[in-house]
Amino acid sequence: MAGARAAAATSAGSSTSSGNPPPQEPGLGELLEEFSRTQYRAKDCSGTGGSKVERIEKRCLELFGRDYCYSVIQNVNGDICGHYPQHIVFLEYESSEKEKDMFQSTVQVSKLQDLVNRSKTARCRGRFVCPVILFKGKHICRSATLAGWGELYGRTGYNYIFSGGADDAWADAEDITEEDCALRSSDTHLFDKVRGYDIKLLRYLSVKYICDLMVENKKVKFGMNVTSSEKVDKAQRYADFTLLSIPYPGCEFFKEYKDRDYMAEGLIFNWKQDYVDAPLSIPTFLTCSLNIDWSQYQSWDLVQQTQNYLKLLLSIINSDGWAHPRIPEAC
């Protein structure tokens, strides 16, 4: 953020001459310390620990407000997702102080909140598609991968039981469209319903590219498919999006990185493991200008792989087309 960078630069200039380290922005150091030591749960934001989290969240909103006009998706007590902040920021556009007084929202927040509520069960642990970075009018979103049948049926059953018999994912809305009716009547399968709303959210956010970092097509735990990639959706529901399969080692592999004293040079992922079945697949029109031999991706060490993937993602973000990559997290 420009305001934060300017303040940091001024502080650094004055402290260098005195030999003291530059002071941190109030709240940011506390945020880094908090997330590195504790697991965040929105529903636990009460009591002493809760007041600390609320203070950090408020500070983050103040910092966002320096450079952007934004709307907020309410997630009080983790009602939408227990792993997301209580106030989820939707950055709308960069702005000056003068423009903030004339703020006009570019989205219908109530509609966005409704789409989020309806689509949240489609993805692992309810981690729905959420914009996190705004660059030149383009939103870079994050989310989890698609939930498998075990979690999907388990979560919807849990919601049904603990909501007194009312399925909150399919609560009646005042503005039921023809498309909504078609989703409910033409196919009663749960996958069609929840993934249909997931796709509606992606379209509402103008997502064009989906960048899939999974090294497997489906993640299996205890013999059950717990998550699935959009690229192997049997019904081809995500065919209208540009899907990129750019397999990148998951969090388990980074234990080796830590064991090597955080030396990534020469550290190569073992692509011959049984569960690794997602090949690299990128549309040619996205790679022709990068001068990278993608056929050699399995021989790259962690440094080269990260560099090449970042070159690809940055080229998409900088392209003239209306590109909104959705980069999923590892399960």
From TrEMBL:
<dbReference type="InterPro" id="IPR039803">
    <property type="entry name" value="MTMR14_PH-GRAM"/>
</dbReference>
<feature type="region of interest" description="Disordered">
    <location>
        <begin position="1"/>
        <end position="30"/>
    </location>
</feature>
<feature type="compositionally biased region" description="Low complexity">
    <location>
        <begin position="1"/>
        <end position="19"/>
    </location>
</feature>
<protein>
    <submittedName>
        <fullName>Myotubularin related protein 14</fullName>
    </submittedName>
</protein>
<dbReference type="InterPro" id="IPR029021">
    <property type="entry name" value="Prot-tyrosine_phosphatase-like"/>
</dbReference>
<dbReference type="InterPro" id="IPR039802">
    <property type="entry name" value="MTMR14"/>
</dbReference>
<dbReference type="GO" id="GO:0004438">
    <property type="term" value="F:phosphatidylinositol-3-phosphate phosphatase activity"/>
</dbReference>
